[in-house]
Amino acid sequence: MDAGSVESLFAGYPDVRLRLVSRSAHTSQVVTGFLMLARRRRIALTIEDAGHRREEYPHPHLVEAFVGGRRIAFDMLDGYNFDVVAAAAYIRGVDLYFKRSCSTFRNGVFPAEVRAKIRPLGFNYHVTCPENPINPVPVEIKSLRKRLIALLRPRPAEEGEYFTVEKFECGAGRRVAAKRLKILFLTRLWEGEQNRAINAMRIAIVRALGERYPRNFTGGVTDTPLARALCPELIVAEKYTDRARYLRLMRRSDICIGSTGLWDSIGWKTGEYVAAARAVVNERFVYEVPGGFREGVNYLGYASAEECVAQVDLLMRCPDAVQRMKEANAAYYREWLRPDALVGQALRQAEML
């Protein structure tokens, strides 16, 4: 291909200047999406670090894209746990504001001209690519024990390599017989009186599914002082919380259970389940998800431990329903959740792609 044809190949592709407010892991997904689009020559990308201008932003979990004369913000915060006045002032200065945890009802705290700029972004999970500047910088291993472990079980040079796109993807696969369906629910407990009900429900779900499906269920709670006090018998072995092993386990599971995260957010695990095209049973969403992600098609919802178990029962009795949900989530991931698709959908709304 000669120089002239190369020039025409790139003609018309938008120039994008990406501004990073911080190295928040929440923003890694969006940065990865832009990098994937650049790698595929859909955009011409430059990235700048605005960490020194942090005081100009209402919180650090933001990424800005400047494209076609427009300023587009991506808000990856868990909820609405920010200064509303500062957030409104910031949103007035952008053209579009894509919010990970977005609620039409909760947007009512803003004036009409601010609400008009806000759009739901969808699921968030920690995914990256090797050239992502959000990736943690490798640090020297000082512990002798950890050095020995590293020698016996080599790890990637950067932690970020554990979260690359392909680590989550496995497609819907073939239909699995009922007796072979695998259920997964690994969770943690949160400190604080305000989390008492959340913790009680998570403990009840783990106990109930462990008793009901002893051969099919893998689950438990992360080892913390609170877990040791409340349910020491449900604490999972360290091998299940190791990130690389967890991802392999999740990809081998068929029915994955999610729960509401901090500030009513949709947890990272739910995004991971959809990326892996798993059947999902999840606490009903407080926040909106774009792209036609629907209860009864892409996930089954619950509001209590009893309802969660009932929804799992329903799927365990119907492997065809599990397979249909896996296929629906594989399709949703391709169109709306894969990082380049998530960013591409946002840019299309801004009429940039």
UniProtKB/TrEMBL annotation:
<dbReference type="InterPro" id="IPR055259">
    <property type="entry name" value="YkvP/CgeB_Glyco_trans-like"/>
</dbReference>
<protein>
    <recommendedName>
        <fullName>Spore protein YkvP/CgeB glycosyl transferase-like domain-containing protein</fullName>
    </recommendedName>
</protein>
<feature type="domain" description="Spore protein YkvP/CgeB glycosyl transferase-like">
    <location>
        <begin position="212"/>
        <end position="331"/>
    </location>
</feature>
<dbReference type="Pfam" id="PF13524">
    <property type="entry name" value="Glyco_trans_1_2"/>
</dbReference>
